[in-house]
Design goal:
The protein is α+β, with helices and mostly antiparallel strands and 391 residues long. The protein is 24% helix and 16% strand. It is elongated.
């Protein structure tokens, strides 16, 4: 592992016809007739705002989703699929489920049906109802591929009904807002492939942000959604949190430190360091200095080399975060699964360091090397977990 600059460098109009009644009435009509409300059945075309652009807008106030209005487009999904996503979010809003739940619900439906209201070739009654594709997984139906225990055929083929049933079970999962998306989704769905949900978390967060005014960047605090406040163990709806509270000092690849592949966040020695998102521990060890010494239990000094005691975490989407200069051996071990906000170590000054701080890096595409590193400041800000004094 090559070390430099104080730390290791070892990674948007959809148009639809006027809706003749309110959402519930429309959905009931869909259940009971076969021909009306065709906007659920196909993409509608038109010029729309780009969802990726909207997702990058600022946070708050959270706006109610208007499923009858213009919706943005996303490269990953067609118009009908985005409208299904809007229905899922709208149901969550109506039920007053915190926005983290909307992200989990969307990611689940993405995995189960690719946001399509699926009939089933083995359930003939479903084929007579409005649908956007035909599946063949047992007797599963709809956006969430729910089986008979979840409701009748007509109910399971009604997007708003299936979303409501999902949320009703979701909120009964203990500590669901803080636990990894895969764990929570699995407890609701009981899927044969529980780990598959995590790969949809990033796009689900983008859709929630674009449709609901940056809602994935909020934290639920005292019953209110607060923007850009994910730190001290509070987790944004996106699933991310700042690793420590503190001000950014030395920045990412500055003119004076072009090899500095992260940012330095000042904090007192012993300050708890938290996992920025749920993930698996790739590395938790003492990084040798330039002289190959593994003496991380003592304070380091400039030009000593090495990251000191450090941890690398692998997250959904191929993101890797790095936490350097811990004061003592990390609290986690290689291969361990950690939750977002879980304490993984304490701030120190081991390795190539001039004083207590956390050197924090973000890498893309499973690349732990310098070539995979990106600036953590915009990355964390976009996820509602901004690093302080980062502008």
């Amino acid at each position: 592992m090559t070390v430099g600059g104080g730390a290791a460098t070892p990674r948007r109009s959809l148009r639809i016809g006027l809706i003749a009644t309110i959402l519930t009435g429309v959905l009931l009509l869909l259940c009971c007739t076969g021909g009306t409300a065709a906007f659920f059945l196909s993409g509608l075309g038109g010029d729309a705002e780009n969802g990726d652009t909207l997702a990058g807008w600022g946070c708050g106030p959270i706006r109610p989703v208007d499923i009858a209005g213009e919706l943005p487009r996303f490269t990953e999904y067609g118009d009908a699929q985005v409208r299904n996503a809007a229905i899922i979010i709208k149901v969550g809003q109506d039920l007053k489920v915190p926005s983290r739940g909307w992200v989990i619900a969307l990611a689940t439906a993405m995995q189960e049906s690719a946001l399509r209201n699926l009939a089933n070739s083995g359930v003939p009654a479903s084929l007579a109802l409005p649908h956007e594709g035909v599946g063949a997984d047992h007797d599963s139906l709809g956006l969430f591929q729910q089986r008979p225990g979840w409701g009748s055929v007509a109910e399971r083929m009604t997007p708003a009904y299936t979303a409501r049933k999902f949320y009703e079970k979701l909120v009964k999962v203990r500590s669901w807002q803080r636990r990894p998306l895969t764990v929570v989704a699995q407890q609701v769905q009981v899927s044969a492939y529980p780990d598959a949900y995590a790969k949809h978390e990033e796009v689900a967060s983008k859709i929630v942000d674009a449709l609901a005014g940056g809602a994935a960047r909020t934290v639920e605090i005292n019953g209110k959604a607060v923007c850009n406040a994910a730190e001290r163990g509070e987790i944004a709806a996106s699933g991310w949190t700042a690793p420590i509270p503190g001000d950014v000092g030395s920045g990412f690849r500055t003119a004076s430190r072009p090899g500095h592949d992260g940012v330095d966040i000042g904090a007192a020695k012993g300050t708890e360091i938290r996992a920025a998102a749920a993930g698996r521990v790739l590395v938790a060890k003492c990084d040798p200095d330039h002289r190959l010494r593994e003496d991380c239990d003592v304070d380091g000094f400039p030009d000593k080399g090495g990251c000191g005691w450090f941890v690398d975490l692998l997250h959904a989407g191929g993101y890797i975060t790095r936490y350097c200069h811990m004061v003592v051996r990390p609290r986690v071990r290689e291969g361990q699964m950690v939750a977002a906000g879980e304490v993984i170590g304490q701030v120190g000054s081991s390795g190539n360091s001039s004083g207590p701080h956390l050197h924090f890096e973000v890498h893309l595409r499973n690349n732990r090397d310098s070539s995979g590193a990106v600036n953590p400041i915009p990355f964390m800000r976009e996820r509602g977990a901004p690093l302080r004094a980062a502008e």
